[in-house]
């Protein structure tokens, strides 16, 4: 079973998620504040950490920034009630491999955790929409075409995800394999994390609400 | 520092002090207002520096204490006695030639006591800071009669001082008079002006704060409290979920959006409102994603209505809990996809029951210059694709 760690300052939510996940993953621990979380994650080395965005003491951002995936092999899935663009982008740029909102169904959450554990990316429809918006084609200045633009195929995959289709459905609709869909999404994640597009930050701050 | 049952005869009040609290301590022991004790020290200081020496000895011999509850006051005749004692001491010092000169000590004595009378707030122990500083209690300000007496004494002192400066030239005299009067007025009115300005500022920010608070309270009352009340009265758990969901959407919009009415001319806002309506009416979750943005126009209004009809259709017939709406503005057109993973239907065999699709969606889109395609298969969900070129309304 996948070893999963939970970070959330809402006791009630923590308890709920723990119960939901109990039969599918091995919840090795949980924390409700930033310092506690950092210490426990370094100690326990879980495969996947579900981390809340808004918490006292720096929030999920502080947790992600303090734990390097390269050194520890720990992968992060951001989970939040907020789907504000700037939160989403900040978490992804800090190193989270995915972002889902707390209204996600338990089955979808388990799926997402498995995908993250595999080293793939998890994009909610909204996150896919953000990326499409932020990487709109009308970029006046592109520094690095490799990183600052999406390929036609990546764009098409993101559109399907934004329309609410699962990776599997996307694959069959575009007549490609699920593995290819995962590859495209992971490539987009990498661009999202590394792109120097100045629009990204400006766009995120412009868009206060989804 | 120890506190005994009976306080020492002489102590310093560290909680009511200008320098060390010695004057306040002495005043409390004597049962008079600290202002007068302070004035006495000033006058004695002018008497060859005796006041300064006495003050230093006093500080060295006493300990700090806070409010010891020693609140007795003395009568008018006793106060007069103390005053006469001070005069006697001054006369003695004058005789002993510990004196900076008649033209200094007497005028400044009057000025000091005039100020003391103004600063003294009454029979209780004065807290200089309590009415001079912002936020002080207005009721602690001295009564008008004392203000008048104090002012008269103060100006008598100033006048005496100015009149007795024989050494000043005729030219310098008026200048000095003006200067001294200005200083006197500043001493008199300064604290009052400071207080007034501070009070005004405080009142203004108080008013702004309370207006904001009442705005928030009004909004929460109209929305969240009403919903919570409904949830408590509801036995139907589906209904509760719907109410909570709709409330969440509204509250989120209110919290994160600067002004919901401001952008009502935008496509995304109109779609958001549409999604909210369907969520409320049909107990489903509508996941809306918009990419790009454009101003609403009559033809885009038709798109929003058609999308609303498609979403409501999915909610009515799809048998699903979640409907996805994706709208993209790019390349001179708006595309909206409404998809559900529900039961689906045979598009070629649309019966009367489904006439909403042809009438409200397809024909509406075509009338405004756009197009609509419906794709669905039984058991495979439904997707409605609406497309509208931009710039048709110009």
Describe this structure in words.
The complex is a heterodimer of chains A (210) and B (394). Chain A folds into 2 domains: 1-119, Response regulator (Rossmann fold), CATH 3.40.50.2300; 122-210, Winged helix-like DNA-binding domain superfamily/Winged helix DNA-binding domain (Arc Repressor Mutant, subunit A, Orthogonal Bundle). Chain A is 54% helix and 13% strand. By secondary structure, chain A is α/β, with parallel strands linked by helices. Chain B has 12 helices and 7 strands. Chain B has helices at 22-30, 34-46, 50-61, 76-95, 102-119, 128-132, 144-163, 172-233, 237-256, 267-282, 298-317, 355-367; strands at 12-13, 64-65, 285-291, 322-330, 333-340, 371-376, 382-389. The model of chain B is unreliable at 1-5, 123-138 and 258-262 (pLDDT under 50). Classes of the chains: A alpha/beta (210), B alpha/beta (394). The interface between A and B is medium-sized, with 18 and 22 residues.
Number of helices of chain A: 12
Helix content of chain A: 40-55%
Query: What is the CATH top level name of the largest domain in chain A?
Result: Alpha Beta
Taken in chain order, the helices and strands of chain B follow as EHHHEHHHHHHHEHEEHEE
Radius of gyration of chain A, whole Å: 17 Å
